[in-house]
Specification:
Elements: H1 8-33, H2 44-97, H3 105-125, E1 127-128, E2 131-132, E3 140-148, E4 154-161, E5 183-185, E6 191-193, E7 197-204, E8 212-217, E9 220-225, H4 231-245, E10 250-255, E11 258-263, E12 270-277, E13 283-289, E14 299-302, E15 307-311, E16 322-327, E17 330-335, H5 342-355, E18 361-367, E19 374-380, E20 387-395, H6 415-468, H7 472-498
Antiparallel strand pairs: 1-2, 3-4, 5-15, 6-20, 7-11, 7-13, 8-9, 8-12, 10-11, 12-14, 15-19, 16-17, 16-20, 18-19
Helix pairs in contact: 1-7, 2-3, 2-6, 5-6
C-alpha cells in the first residue's frame, strides 16, 4: 500500500542519516582534540581515572622542583664541608710543623688563625636560598614523593637531611634532668695532684748466702744474690739499680728494708713484680701500692699519675646532654649534638679542657679494651699548681656545641698547646669528613629519587595517553567510511522522498 501521509522509507533513511551524522561528529571531535575520551560523557570511568592521574603528574612536577632545590642546597653543603676538610688539613700541617722547638711558632699561629677565619667564612656562606645545612642541628625535610594508596588517600614522603653543624659554637649548658652519673671520677679523686704514685717492696727476715731476689720494673728484670746481706742491703741494691736504668718518670729510694718505687708517668701504669728464692727465711713482698698499705702482693701496678673520668657504658647520649668538668677554679663544658656517643663526649671534654690552657695540665682520651668504656684522663705535672680541684656535673636540655668546637682555642705558641692541638685537629678533621660523607650520601639519594620521579612521570603520562588518546589511524579510516555512509544516506533519503510523487500518475 502506498501512502502520502506516511513515508516509511524516508523515515528509515532519515534515522540512518542522523546516526551517521552523530558518528561523524564524534569522529571529528576525536580528530580535533586527539582524544577518544575528552569529557566525562565520552566514558565517565576512564575520564575519572585520567583526571586523577593527571593531577598526580602535576604533583610530581612540583616534586621534581622540590628535589632540584634540595639537591642544590645539599650540593652547596657538601662542597663547603669538603672545603673545610681541606682547610683543616692545612691547619694540621701547620700544627705538625709547630711540634719542632726551633721554629717560629708565633708566625705559625698567625697562619693557623688565618685558615681558621677562612673556615668561619666558608661555614657562614654555605647557604642556598637562605638555607645553611652546616649550621644548626635541626633536620631538613625535602618533599620526595606522593604515595597514593588503594583507598585513594595520598601521603607525602620526605627525604630527611641531617644538618652537620660545622661551627665553633660552645653551646649552652643545660638545666634539665641531672645525669651526672654518666661521668664519674675514678677512685672518687677530689684533686688532680702532681705527686708521684708509689709501690713499697719490703725485704724482711734473714737473707743467707746465695739467697736471690728479683725485681721487675716496667718489663726490666733486676736480680740480687745475697752473701749474708742485711735487708737494708737488698733494698739499697735495688734502689741503685732502678735509678741506674734511667726509666722515664721512675725513681727509687730505700729506708731500711723498704724500697719505695715512685712513678710520675702521666698516662701509663707501671708494672712491678717482686720475687725471692731463699735458703733461709728471707722474704720480699709489695706491702704498699698507690698509698694503700697492709698488702702482701708479688705483682702490682703503680697507677698513672693522671686522674680519670669514666663515661657510662650503658647510658645513651641525647642532643643537649651537657657535661661539665671543673679543674681548679675553672669549669669546662661540652654539650652533645644529635647522634653523638660517649666517645664524642669524652673527646669534647678533652678539647674543652685543652682550650683552657691550664699550666701543667694535659689530657688524653682512652677506651678500655675489655669494657669498651671511654674515659678522659687529666694530668698535672706541677709546673702550675701542684694540686687542682676536680669535679664533674651533667644535665640534659642544653644547646649543642658546634661540630668544630675547640677550633678557635687552638694555640701552638707553647709546647703544651702544640701537643694538645695535634690531638684536637684529628677530631675536627674527622668531624668534617663525616659531614662531607653524609652530605654526599644524601645528594646521591636525591639524584636517584629525582631520576625515578622523572621516569615515573613519563610512565604516568604514557598510561594516561593509552586510556584517553585517540588512535588516529583508526579514526582516519572510520572518517572515510562515515563520509561514504553519509553520502549514501543522503542519496537514500532523496530516493525515499521521491516515492510519493509516483502516486500522482494514478490520478492522471
Amino acid at each position: 500500500m502506498s501512502s502520502i501521509l506516511t513515508n516509511t522509507g524516508a523515515m528509515v533513511a532519515l534515522q540512518t542519516l542522523k546516526g551517521v551524522n552523530v558518528n561523524m561528529a564524534t569522529t571529528q571531535n576525536e580528530i580535533s582534540t586527539g582524544k577518544s575520551v575528552s569529557s566525562a560523557k565520552d566514558n565517565s570511568a576512564v575520564w575519572a581515572i585520567s583526571k586523577v592521574m593527571e593531577a598526580d603528574v602535576n604533583g610530581f612536577k612540583a616534586i621534581s622542583d622540590s628535589l632540584a632545590l634540595g639537591e642544590s642546597t645539599v650540593a652547596v653543603a657538601r662542597q663547603a664541608s669538603e672545603t673545610v676538610t681541606d682547610l683543616l688539613t692545612d691547619i694540621k700541617g701547620k700544627i705538625v710543623a709547630a711540634q719542632e722547638e726551633n721554629v717560629d711558632r708565633t708566625k705559625i699561629q698567625t697562619d693557623i688563625s688565618a685558615l681558621r677565619d677562612q673556615i668561619t667564612a666558608v661555614v657562614s656562606a654555605a647557604q642556598f636560598n637562605g638555607l645553611n645545612l652546616i649550621q644548626g642541628t635541626e633536620d631538613v625535610d625535602i618533599l620526595s614523593s606522593l604515595d597514593r594508596s588503594a583507598d585513594g588517600s595520598v601521603a607525602a614522603t620526605n627525604i630527611t637531611i641531617s644538618r652537620q653543624d660545622q661551627s665553633t659554637a660552645a653551646g649552652t649548658y643545660g638545666s634539665g634532668t641531672d645525669i651526672s652519673a654518666n661521668a664519674v671520677i675514678a677512685d672518687s679523686a677530689s684533686a688532680v695532684a702532681s705527686s708521684a704514685n708509689t709501690a713499697v717492696v719490703s725485704y724482711a727476715n734473714t737473707w743467707a748466702a746465695n739467697d736471690t731476689a728479683t725485681l721487675t720494673v716496667a718489663g726490666v728484670e733486676l736480680s740480687f744474690t745475697a752473701t749474708g746481706a742485711a735487708v737494708a742491703d737488698v733494698a739499697s741494691f735495688f734502689e741503685g739499680a732502678i735509678n741506674g736504668l734511667g726509666l722515664d718518670g721512675v725513681t727509687a729510694s730505700s729506708s731500711g728494708g723498704d724500697l719505695t718505687i715512685s712513678s710520675t708517668r702521666a698516662f701509663e701504669d707501671l708494672s712491678v713484680t717482686s720475687a725471692s728464692s731463699t735458703a733461709g727465711d728471707g722474704d720480699a713482698l709489695i706491702t704498699s701500692l698507690n698509698g694503700t698499705g697492709s698488702l702482701t702482693l708479688a705483682t702490682g701496678d703503680i697507677s698513672k699519675r693522671a686522674e680519670q673520668i669514666d663515661m657510662s657504658t650503658a647510658a645513651a647520649v641525647s642532643e643537649g646532654d651537657s657535661y661539665k668538668v671543673t679543674v681548679g677554679s675553672n669549669s669546662y663544658n661540652y654539650i652533645a649534638g644529635k647522634g653523638e656517643s660517649m666517645e664524642d663526649v669524652a673527646k669534647g671534654l678533652k678539647t674543652a679542657i685543652d682550650g683552657g690552657s691550664i699550666a701543667g695540665v694535659t689530657t688524653k682520651v682512652v677506651q678500655d679494651a675489655t669494657t669498651k668504656q671511654w674515659s678522659v684522663q687529666i694530668d698535672n705535672d706541677g709546673t702550675g699548681s701542684t694540686s687542682l680541684a676536680l669535679s664533674t656535673a651533667a644535665n640534659q636540655d642544653g644547646k649543642a656545641s658546634g661540630g668544630l668546637f675547640g677550633l678557635d682555642k687552638i694555640d701552638v705558641r707553647t709546647d703544651a698547646g702544640a701537643s694538645s692541638a695535634l690531638d684536637s685537629i684529628e677530631t675536627l678533621i674527622q668531624s668534617s669528613i663525616d659531614a662531607g660523607a653524609n652530605f654526599g650520601s644524601a645528594q646521591a639519594r636525591i639524584e636517584n629519587q629525582s631520576d625515578f620521579i622523572s621516569k615515573l612521570t613519563d610512565s604516568l603520562k604514557s598510561g594516561i595517553g593509552t586510556l584517553v588518546d585517540a588512535d588516529m589511524e583508526e579514526v582516519s579510516a572510520r572518517l572515510t567510511a562515515l563520509q561514504t555512509q553519509q553520502q549514501l544516506a543522503v542519496q537514500s533519503l532523496s530516493i525515499a522522498n521521491q516515492a510519493p510523487q509516483s502516486i500522482l500518475s494514478l490520478f492522471r
